[in-house]
Each structure stands twice: as C-alpha cells, then as structure tokens.
Design a protein that fits this description.
Layout lengths: L6 E6 L8 E7 L8 E2 L5 E3 L13 E7 L26 E3 L11 E6 L6 E6 L7 E6 L7 E6 L7 E2 L1 H4 L6 E4 L7 E5 L4 E5 L7 E4 L6 E4 L7 E4 L8 E4 L7 E4 L2 E6 L10 E5 L6 E6 L7 E7 L1 E5 L2 E8 L8 E8 L5 E2 L10 E6 L6 E7 L2 E7 L6 E5 L4 E2 L18 E2 L1 E3 L7 E6 L9 E6 L6 E3 L18 E6 L2 E7 L1 E4 L2 H5 L9 E2 L7 E8 L7 E5 L7 E4 L3 E6 L4 E6 L6 E5 L7 E4 L6 E7 L7 E7 L6 E7 L6 E2 L6 E4 L14 E8 L5 E2 L8 E5 L7 E3 L3 E3 L9 E3 L5 H5 L10 E4 L3 E3 L10 H4 L2 E4 L8 E5 L4 E5 L6 E5 L8 E5 L5 E6 L2 E6 L4
Parallel strand pairs: 4-28, 52-55
Antiparallel strand pairs: 1-8, 2-5, 3-20, 6-48, 7-51, 8-9, 9-10, 10-11, 12-13, 13-14, 14-15, 16-17, 17-18, 18-19, 20-21, 21-22, 22-23, 24-25, 25-26, 26-27, 28-29, 29-30, 30-31, 32-33, 34-35, 35-36, 36-37, 38-39, 40-42, 41-42, 42-43, 43-44, 45-46, 46-47, 47-48, 49-50, 50-51, 53-54, 54-56, 57-61, ...
Length: 835
C-alpha cells in the first residue's frame, strides 16, 4: 500500500441515522525509508522515530461502526433543521457548567454538503493557508469530491466543477514543494498533477493502475509508481512530473527510497521476487541503469534510517523443519545474522523502534507469546527486555481472535514518548489470554533496561481518593520481596482502540510538547473497559486524572493549550486548559449538538486553531469547524519572564537522567497567561550524569530478576550457555584485550561517566601471550645440541661440521631462532630450524 506524504487524515463514517463511531488517531511518520509495495509476511514495523520531519507528518483518523456499543441519544430539538441552524452567542462555561463571561473564542463552520464516507484532509503547511479535503467511499470504486480551502478551513471550494466525473483514489504531496500534488484515479488508469495546491490540473493516461506512488525527496519532477496487485509488478518512473513513464524494474515486491546521510537522494532499494521465498535485494543510485545485489534468499526486507533488515528461512543442521532468521546491516555494512538469547522458536519479527542507534524487536515465539528484545549498537546481539508484550499479526500471532475482523496489519502495544530519549510505555499480556482484563502497563526511562508500573494518582478528577496511590506495595522479608498490594495505572493503546466496547484513543505525546502525555486508561490490577483520561506533565513519572469517560484530545501552541471533546456522545462543547491540565473550562461551540468524528490541530502543534470534523444528526453530511482559542490568552509570551527550565524530576531513582545525560527544556510556566506563537524556538541544554544501574541493561545471556520493577540485577538466563559467552574469543591476538561481561552492558547511546561504572562495566582480560616451547643449548666442542624441555625430551644435533673447540653459546631473541657460536679460531653463526 502506498504511503501518503504530508499532513493527511483519513476519516471513515458509517451512513446510519445515528452515527455510532470510534475515532482512532495516530501520527504516521514519514521518512524516505517508508515501505512501498506488498505487505511483508515475517518482518513488520511500528512507527518510525528516526529522521522525521514531524511538521509534514500525516494523520490517520479511522471512524468505524461500533455495533456492540450502541449510542442512541434522544436530544430534544435536534432534527434535520439543525444542520443549518445559525451559531448564536458563544458562551464560555466553567468546568462546573455554570455560565461565564463571553470568551471571544472564534468558531467558524463549513458544511461540505457531501455524504461520502471517508474524508482525507491535508494541511499544505510551511506557512500556507491551503487545506485539501478528498471525500470518497471506503472501497476503491465509486465517486469522489475534492475540496480546497485557501483560508485555513473557513471555506472550501468544490473542485469537481473543474475536474468533471473523476474518481480520485488518493493524493500525494511533494516533500520539497508543498504546492505540488499528484492525484490518482485507479479506475480510469489516470493521474492528475497540480503545481498550485490543487487549483489547476494536468491529466495523463497510464498503461497501469497507479495504486502505489512515491515522490522524490529533492527533485519534484521524479515520480515512482506501480500496481502492486498486478502479476507483473512493474515499477515505473517519470522524470517529468507524470507526463511520460518507463518501466524501471519488474517482479518488484517492495521498494524504498534511500535515507540521507547514509544514502544519496537517488538511491533506491528494491526487493525483487526471484522464486518463492527466495527474493533478492538490489541497490541502485542511478535508477537502475546499474545496480548491485545486497543480499539473496530473503523472505522480507526493510530499510529504517541507518539500519537495514532482512529475514531468511534456512534449514539448520540437526534441526527439524525450517527456521526463520533476522539479518541486520548497520550504516550500510554487510548483513549479519542477529542473535537472540535462548532456544525459543522465532516465527516473525516486529521492529518497534530503530532510533538512537539501538533496535527494539518484538519476536513472536508461539501463537500467544511474544517477547520484546533490545539490541546492541550494531543491532546484532539482543537481550530480553520485557516478556509477553501485546502483539498481533494477521497471518500469525493471535490471528484466530476477534482482532482479525478489525485489523489487517501487525501491531505491538509499545509507545515511544515523543521528544524524549529512552522513555517507552508497553502493554504486557498475562496468562496468555488476549483480553483487556489480562493486560498491564509498564514504563521504562532507560530504553528497556528497567520496566516499572505507572504510578496512579492519589485523587481522581472529582477530588475523591483513589486508594491506588502506590504502584505496588511490598513487605520485605529476609529472603526476598512479597507482594502485599497490586494497584497501578494502565493505559490504552492499539488493542484498546480496536476492542469492541472500548475503542479508546491511543497515547498522545509530541516532540513539540516535551514531557506532556495524554492517555486513556484505568486504575487497578489491570486494564478495564471503562477508561478515563489521564495527563502526565513529567514524561510519565506522575499522572493525574483530568476527565471521566472517553474523549478526543489534542495539544496546541507547543503544549500551552490542551483541548478535548467527548468521543461517543452527541455534544456541542469542548474542554480546554491553558495551564497544562491544572484547571479546565467548558466552551459551547454550537447551539445544537453534533456528532464528532475527530479533533485535530495542524501537525507541529504550533497554532491555537483546532479542527473538529463531524456531522449534524440525521442524514450524514460532512461538517468542518475551526475553533481558534487564541483569545483565552492575554498576550504573547515574554522569552525572559514566561518560561522556565524543565527536566525530569531529581527526586527519582535515576535523578532525572535519561541515557546518561539530563536534558533541560524551555517550557512555558503553567500560570503564564500568554501564548508562544508559531515562531517559538525550543531551547534545550544537555549535560552528562554519573552512571547508575539505569544506564545498563542485561547483557546477552542474562535477564532481569522478576518482577522487573524490584529487580536487584541481572542473572544468568537459564536458556543461555554462559560457558560460550565467557570463553576467550577465537581471534585474540597477543597484546590485546577481550571483554568478560558481569551480566550488564551499557545502553546504546548512553553517555554517563563515573559513578557506579565499576560495578557494571565488563572486565577487560588480556589475550594470552603465545607460549613458546623451552629448550636447552649445549656444546661438546665439536657439536652444538638442542634439548627440548617438557614432555618428551629430544636431543637434536644442530651443528657438527666445521666446528672445533666451541666454548660459548648465545641465543638472539630479536633475530628469532638465530644461534651464535664462538670457537678458538673466530665466530660462527647459524639459524636454528623452525619449530
């Protein structure tokens, strides 16, 4: 499936009298390492956190029918006439619902008069006021309508009057020029190109269906396209923005643009089908005028930043059946096989993250069990990080569950907290039974070195005690730790977003708002069906409940304002906070309630304008509202007075340090009544920290003691062979040293110095000096003898001719095996025979 480029969101809604919907919001990370072509079978990827320009990232909003959570509200006075009801006085309300003074928040609405079931919306970005919206049906067939706004969504122009009877499948935005777009009509085998934000078009007939399209990163005229569902799988290239095309390769399973700085802008990688499960990977820097083979016999291939991955099926000597292997290349070097601890079967791989010179891989070992592993810097040696993470593969793990009805792509419930290094939140499955009640959440601040439960708030959003103010209570006994209480916070991720009866919004964190996390979740021993909304202002260390029930939520103005809107019920109100969630206010954006499908702000979270996508009740008809909350602030922030330094708290066990260094951010003070504005520049300062246990992870062949959050160290993995791990390497030249692990290794990218290094760093043993056999030289005046010492003693005559009255012997070590003999008539020299 081809990937969209730019700020794009996909909205689907069912056409029913009352819309029972769920919205899923995820940020699609765009880099030139995105996969184009067929879906992989054994090698899957999560969100890419590598070299990504977040301001050009698309959003995917997926509104699906929600049959098992029927939501039919009887709202007095709502009917078809409400669609055109005027907006009256906009009244600001306090959180308790009592009327407040008029706020001046500006709301505009636009009725598209369109009933298609999907809406793909794209902000042109880069200071442009252009927004595109493509309305279409769920399937590839059917009609479509393209709408273009030149005033940031206040009004839209229907471009079908110029296009005529055209059915667009999707559209693509140039990475270099935000005014350049490519639209595809796969029913008619045509593309339409525009160089002025979709206001004028050129149309070209093709000899294939352009299901997959990829635009060049630096040359706006170069386009790649293919029909990945055809039998020939031909990859085409155009050098003139779609006017002319030529076949570049055939039998293409997938292809990737190279990634700078490791590749040039014209670098292409192609996975080509040779025969079943025996593909080859080709690399070219001149659009396949010439190419070279990188690896053969692969099942799947992927590129992510400086890493390349491939899977192979091989028959190992002495084993039964075929084994799957992961092969990795870092910095474009040769592929090498990755090594995982233990002897568990490896069925497929899900790379959760490949950023910061380290790889998180979820390995499926059987139908219901998948473990998370962390690599060394080369991506080759892996250690166990977390067992039994939530993982789904439509062709493998848990594919016999209800998930197969809702999801056709693999996923693992692992969230990287954006903007901070080393912070991840993962969901773990207990009892190998895939249900909400068997899921618990953990967080790590050192990239998987140590996982711990999420600290639940002491009070809920209504001020009532939660009785869940400790992650886990323990009584310490002489021989260990004993659980006495289990209560922590558990957060919803992809599983809960799909789960019938739950359908919650996934975790939200943004680089533009460092340390802020919004999430839906529950408190207790495990995840439950009725979540509330929680906010962390310190990267997940502490949490507070901010709302009861299900909500859509979004950041604006670099986290300076947070907006939320009810997810399932008809509503005409938003909630907003301008002090990082300390207090909340209610604002009525319309006199009549509507069905809300989604809440977004332009990628980058720089503005105070929030977009609400929905429909009036009754017959479905797209409605777009723009809510500008800039008036809630008194003025623009003063750089000297309205900001303070923020970093992770110093009272935690890791002293606010992440991966050996502490990053200090510049963040607006919560009570400063001002906005930062789109020109705000984030300022950071970094310094190294002293080494602690959190800077180290378990080395290959070792694992954390259980439970993870009370682990006192790494212990030998019972499935590993420590003799092999500790043995002297085969290549150990004299005068060099080899590593003898204590069970720990420093987390890749960690820059800590001093502190407890001596406790965790590996010992360095010297390679042995080559042992030479000892021997004795003696002379009986007419002969020189060599006697080998040790074992069987051998007496060998070295010199006996022309030697008389030898009275002294010497051995020259520098010349090696050289013998000096002196007799009455002068000196004599010979070379001893080689050993």
């Amino acid at each position: 499936m081809a990937a969209d480029t730019g700020h794009r969101l996909l909205i689907r809604c069912p056409v029913v009298a009352f819309f029972v919907v769920v919205l899923s919001l995820s940020t699609l990370r765009i880099s030139h390492a995105i996969r184009y072509g067929q879906k992989p079978a054994t090698l899957h990827f999560g969100e890419d956190f590598g070299n990504v320009d977040l301001t050009r990232s698309p959003f995917l909003i997926d509104v699906t029918d929600f049959a098992d959570r029927t939501l039919v509200e009887e709202v007095e006075g709502l009917g078809s006439h409400a669609r055109d009801a005027p907006f009256g006085n906009r009244v600001k309300r306090q959180a308790d619902g009592t009327p407040a003074a008029q706020s001046g928040i500006n709301v505009t609405k636009f009725q598209l008069n369109d009933s298609h079931t999907q809406l793909i919306v794209h902000w042109a970005g880069e200071g442009s006021n252009v927004i595109l919206a493509l309305a279409r049906y769920n399937s590839d067939g059917g009609t479509s309508s393209l709408f273009v706004s030149q005033d940031y969504g206040h009004t839209f122009q229907n471009m079908q009057t110029e296009l005529g009877n055209v059915s667009f499948h999707r559209y693509y935005n140039s990475p270099i020029y935000n005014s350049h777009y490519v639209f595809t009509d796969i029913q008619a085998n045509r593309i339409y190109t525009s160089r002025n934000f979709g206001l004028k078009f050129l149309s070209y007939q093709l000899s294939f269906k352009p299901r997959t399209v990829a635009l060049h990163s630096t040359n706006p005229n170069i386009i790649l396209a293919m029909d990945d569902m055809s039998s020939e799988k031909k990859l085409y290239i155009s050098h003139d923005f779609g006017a002319n095309w030529r076949v570049m390769q055939s039998s293409v399973k997938s292809f990737f643009w190279g990634v700078e700085p490791w590749d040039g802008p014209n670098t292409l990688y192609i996975e080509r089908e040779e025969w079943t499960n025996n593909n080859i990977v080709l690399k070219s820097t001149n659009f396949f005028q010439t190419s070279r083979v990188l690896i053969r016999g692969v099942v799947d291939f992927e590129v992510r930043d400086n890493y390349m991955f491939a899977t192979k099926r091989v028959h190992l000597f002495g084993s039964r059946g075929i084994s799957l292997q992961l092969w990795v290349s870092r910095n474009r070097r040769m592929f090498q096989r990755a090594v995982f601890p233990g002897a568990l079967q490896e069925l497929d791989y899900y790379v959760a993250d490949a950023s910061e010179d380290q790889v998180f891989v979820c390995v499926n070992h059987n139908h219901t069990s998948s473990h998370l592993y962390i690599s060394d810097q080369e991506g080759l040696r892996y250690s166990l990080s977390l067992t039994d993470v939530i993982y789904f593969n439509p062709n493998g793990s848990n594919n016999d569950t209800w998930l197969r009805l809702y999801k056709d792509e693999s996923f693992a419930d692992i969230h990287k907290v954006d903007g901070l290094r080393g912070v991840y939140i993962a969901s773990q499955l207990r009892n190998h039974s895939l249900s909400l009640e068997n899921q618990v959440s953990y967080i790590t601040f050192d990239k998987g070195g140590l996982w711990q439960p999420l600290l639940a708030p002491q009070k809920d959003s209504e001020g009532n005690p939660t009785n869940c103010d400790q992650p886990l209570g323990y009584k310490k006994y002489k021989h260990g730790l004993l659980k006495s209480k289990q209560c922590s916070l558990h957060l919803s991720q992809e599983f809960s977003k799909l789960y019938p009866g739950s359908k919650t919004v996934p975790i939200l964190s943004k680089k533009s708002a460092p340390g802020l996390i919004l999430a839906s979740g529950t408190m207790g021993k495990n995840l439950k069906r009725r979540p509330n909304v929680y906010l962390s202002r310190d990267a997940g260390l502490r949490w507070r409940e901010i709302q009861k029930g299900n909500y859509f939520y979004a950041f604006g103005d670099f986290g300076g304002v947070i907006v939320a809107v009810s997810q399932f019920s008809l509503t005409n109100e938003i909630l907003y906070s301008k002090d990082i969630g300390e207090t909340w206010h209610t604002y009525q954006f319309a006199p009549h309630k509507i069905r809300v499908y989604g809440l977004l702000t332009e990628p980058g979270e720089k503005t105070t304008v929030f977009s609400i996508f929905g429909s009036h009740t009754g017959a479905h008809n797209w409605l777009i509202l723009q809510v500008n909350v800039s008036s809630i602030f008194a003025t623009k922030c003063n750089p000297d007075d309205d900001y303070k330094e923020w970093s992770l708290s110093d009272d935690q066990h890791f002293s606010g340090c992440l991966l050996g260094r502490k990053t200090v951010f510049k963040r607006r003070t919560p009570h400063a009544n001002c906005y930062s504005g789109p020109d705000f520049q984030q300022v950071t300062e970094t310094r190294n920290c002293s080494c602690t246990r959190q800077d180290y992870e378990c080395d290959l062949g070792f694992m954390e003691e259980s439970p993870l959050y009370t682990s006192t160290g790494c212990v030998p993995d019972p499935d590993a062979n420590l003799t092999t791990i500790h043995e002297q390497p085969a290549n150990c030249p004299p005068g060099t040293f080899y590593r003898y692990t204590k069970g720990y290794r420093r987390v890749a990218g960690d820059t800590c110095h001093g502190g407890q290094e001596y406790r965790y760093e590996a010992l360095m043993y010297s390679c042995p000096v080559e042992e030479k056999s000892e021997f004795l030289l003696y002379s009986n005046r007419h002969q020189i003898h060599r006697v080998e010492l040790g074992g069987e003693m051998r007496d060998t005559v070295l010199v006996e001719r022309f030697l008389q009255n030898a009275v002294a012997l010497d051995f020259d070590y520098k010349e090696k095996l050289s013998l000096l003999g002196r007799h009455l008539y002068g000196r004599y020299q010979t070379r001893l025979p080689e050993e």
